[in-house]
Each structure stands twice: as structure tokens, then as C-alpha cells.
Amino acid sequence: MLKKLFLYFSFxxxxxxxxxAQNYAxxxxxxxxVYEKINPAIVSIDxxxxxxxxxxxxxxxxxxxxxxxxxxxxxxxxxxxxxxYDGKVYKASVLAKMGKNKDxxxxxxxxxxxxxxxxxxxxxxxxxxxxxxxxGNPFGFxxxxxxxxxxxxxxxxxxxxxxxxxxxxxxxxPLLNSQGEVIGISQSIYNPDNNISNIxxxxxxxxxxxxxxxxxxxxxNTNLTNKKRFAFK
Length: 233
Description:
Elements: H1 2-16, H2 19-23, H3 26-38, E1 42-49, E2 52-62, E3 66-69, H4 71-74, E4 79-83, E5 89-91, E6 93-97, E7 105-108, E8 119-120, E9 131-136, E10 144-154, E11 159-162, E12 174-176, E13 181-189, E14 202-206, H5 207-217
Parallel strand pairs: 8-13
Antiparallel strand pairs: 1-2, 1-4, 2-3, 3-7, 4-5, 6-7, 9-10, 9-12, 10-11, 11-14, 12-13, 13-14
């Protein structure tokens, strides 16, 4: 009788436990949670150039359609298309951009409804060895999540080095901490074989540089780096 009662209550307990708790390890739950919160705020960018096209990724930083990306993604573009999480395509205008050294740009689209936005972290707090996640549009595979660690911090060049896979098309996308905060903007990879493969050495611009850039742009006299403004919705 006791054995039957034990089996019954065990079955009831398992049936009411969250599915996530049954099927996923704690580290997997972090990955899933961050991706589900942040991916709706990430866009794909296609820029038409005189000699071809450029593809990249962007982060929605304001619900009315202001997007942060890499300036090299849209340099020389005649026309820029932005595809949002829900598959809608918008024409984008360039609000501001920096040179190759900082490699940041702000775009604007006119969405029909408010967009989800990213949350900024503090790149001064990052540590070598901490877990990071990257979301991007590598080779046109939009909404791709990769994971790794902060491999090195290059203070002289102002770059975060990571082994999270960053490939062509990921530029302008977010490098995230375990809380889902953006700590860097993916920029480039070390590619001695001319993009034949990812060898685990990628670089991101510290997000505090992006915050300074956004404040300098002073869009609509709004302090876009207010962290609370970018809380998950």
C-alpha cells in the first residue's frame, strides 16, 4: 500500500513540475531564457551596394524603430532593408555612424507597431572566463544563437575577444551575458583563411562605447542609454 501511495504521489509531482525543470539543465535554461527574451529584439540587415550587397545584424534599442548595428555593414549602401523578428521588411535610413575604428551606426525604420528592445549591460564589469551568448544572422541564417566565454579583453584596442562563433552576417549583433544584457556588439573575426572557417577568435565592441555613441547622437533629446528603458517587455 505504501509503495502504491509513493508511486502515485511521485506521478502527481512529476505531472505538475514545469516542463523546463524536467527536461533542461540549469545552463540550458539560461541559454533558452536569454534567447527567448532577446531574439525578438534582433533584426537582419541587408544593404545594397554598388558592387553587391552587405549582410549583418542589428539590435533594436528603441521601440519606435531605432536600431544599433556596425557601420561597416551599411557603408556605401544605396538602400538598406531591415527584417524584424516577425518577418516584416522595412526600408531603413541612417541616423548616425562612426568611422572604422569605432564601427557603429544607428538606423531608423518605421514599424507599424512597437518593437521589442534589448537591455544594455556594463562592459566595465566583464571578466575573462565569463559565459557569453551571441545572436546573429550568419550567412543568412537569422536568429542563430551561439555560446562561449570571454576569452580575452584587449584594453589597448577596446575589444572583447570571445570564442562564441561569430561569422559573416553577425556584425552588429549582440554579445550577451547570462542575464540577457548586451555587453558587446559583434564586429569581426580573426580569419587567416579568408572566411573559410570560424576558428574561435571573434571580437566585439564593448557596449559602453555604444552607449557613448548613442548619447552623442542625442536622438530626439532622449537619453537612450537609460538602462531601465531597455528592460524586457
